[in-house]
Design goal:
alpha/beta; transferase (chains A, B); spermidine synthase activity (chains A, B); 358 residues; globular; seven-stranded mixed sheet; Rossmann fold; homodimer; Spermi_synthase_euk (chains A, B); PABS (chains A, B); PABS domain-containing protein (chains A, B); 11 helices
Amino acid sequence: MGEDAGRGLECQKIMDGKGNNGNSSQKAIPSCCLKARASAAELEAKCHSTVVSGWFSESQSSSDKAGKMVYFNNPMWPGEAHSLKVESILYKASSDYQEVLVFESSSYGKVLVLDGIVQLTEKDECAYQEMITHLPLCSIPSPKTVLVVGGGDGGVLAEISRHSSVELIDICEIDRMVIEVSKKFFPELAAGFEDPRVCLHVGDAVEFLRNVPEGKYDVIIVDSSDPVGPAQELVEKPFFDTLARALRPGGVLCNMAESMWLHTHLIDDMISICREIFKGSVHYAWASVPTYPSGVIGFLICSTEGPAVDFLNPINPIEKLEGAHQHKRELRYYNSQMHKAAFSLPSFLKREVRLLCD
Amino acid sequence: MGEDAGRGLECQKIMDGKGNNGNSSQKAIPSCCLKARASAAELEAKCHSTVVSGWFSESQSSSDKAGKMVYFNNPMWPGEAHSLKVESILYKASSDYQEVLVFESSSYGKVLVLDGIVQLTEKDECAYQEMITHLPLCSIPSPKTVLVVGGGDGGVLAEISRHSSVELIDICEIDRMVIEVSKKFFPELAAGFEDPRVCLHVGDAVEFLRNVPEGKYDVIIVDSSDPVGPAQELVEKPFFDTLARALRPGGVLCNMAESMWLHTHLIDDMISICREIFKGSVHYAWASVPTYPSGVIGFLICSTEGPAVDFLNPINPIEKLEGAHQHKRELRYYNSQMHKAAFSLPSFLKREVRLLCD
């Protein structure tokens, strides 16, 4: 990335395949801001196809055959959108895998967006990163080997580094641009990469896992994008099989598992698959993350057959973990009380996801 | 309300003080849809100042002195907005107190909006109504007398009616239009008014409470709007004094208490006030409600000096309550596990609200 990072505010051809009209005598409205042309007073400094009138919305836009702009929001959460006011766009580019956007929001700090979907904001990333990391790592005594799938921003690594028992942290992220962008704009998260225990593998996780010795890891954390497009196979049975194979007996998987308000069918499917594969235990937990659709995110947490794991009562509580609080980052969301509470589920979820009923 | 309810889709002068231009030869765009003029393809059927391109957003609009439209979002959550796709607008009018809007959304069912702020949607109202009701009512044995402040949609009443020990339910709602609109569009909630134990008082709660005999109620539930404008005094000390006076010794208050992600100062203030006034105990709990700002809502729950109340371990668990599950409405969110979990607080909240630390 290097020179490109934070290169300013001009609209890139790369974003929508169209340039400006070149007429410098009048202030051109970039094509990606067509939607803003009429309704925005303050579009000049905030040029991106997802930003209208100075607000970012999780929506997708494309041109139909007649060249008319068509707007629809993400198929994972039809009919609703969360918008953030944009102070300035800090970075945008297309990687080999996705569109990468970083902007400064007026109320949630810096925001990382991949393919139009908010991945994290400075204000609320703590909830997701801390929960997806400490739910598994505090559930077993002295975790030593950890694999992170995805997680290129480094936030999960930064949280793992609180655990002094850990000796090896493999991370397999497919998109190098995400890592570079995080190093530039989210240094507090990307500091996770500086931990000497971290071994970075840039590539496809399915491929990576094929070559992992059986039973290598105590813990695997799948910090992936939503299962639309490239991440689709990360919620299918063969992938979970590979994950289970890479875990030692009694090893633990924690997998991002969408919103209990919006995705009960997907949760139901994932739990069915995991109940078949993981013979230890399978649970669902959730946390409040304001900038994720419906304001929550879920975690599927499973253990393989072996030493029993009691997820609901952390055997390795963070409050007693030497060094866990002497970290550059304060723990902002997670504590043992939140750990236990995260497994309490609304009645509708227990009814709709048949394997979650008591 | 009567004839006016659901009267269709024409823009009312009452909404923005401007009529159409009267030129019937061309299809006039109503003034309240100016924002939509350029960007919307489907504005015809969805005419309201908060609806743009067929999407409702929590924002406020007004004309400045030069007649130019000015847009800003609610001062309670600057810099973010949640939007819902609108299928059709079912009702809109101005009461003596506020603008009332009901629309059918494409993914959250019918939505009630007051002064541009979502009050409830059919999909997620369960979380708020069930928690604000059963947190207090399940915390004391055999509650008999209950007061609801606000709550004109009837949802809290519908939840209270699960409790057969209750003998009297007073409700004091200032805006009769909210009650009438709920009867028409949210009959499942408004059914709460049909409970013969309910005694409806239309009027100002501050005034009402002045005339209440000391120690009359076992439980008071304050289901009010956000403390901007008319509801401002409902978060101030004199009002809490009046509430405490109306409770019997060991009686319980449950008060809507905003978002832990957005309003720590307000929560801090409310808790400070209540710690002074309520000598029993004061706790903060929260629930996930996707269509409220930041996806959560909090509850301040307090008891007066008298028989001790252990909010964290419900003495009157709903699972053992005769008749509580033989109700027209299924319990969708609340259960005793969720009750206990709701008092678990993120570390940032305990740090920022000094009286919440362990």
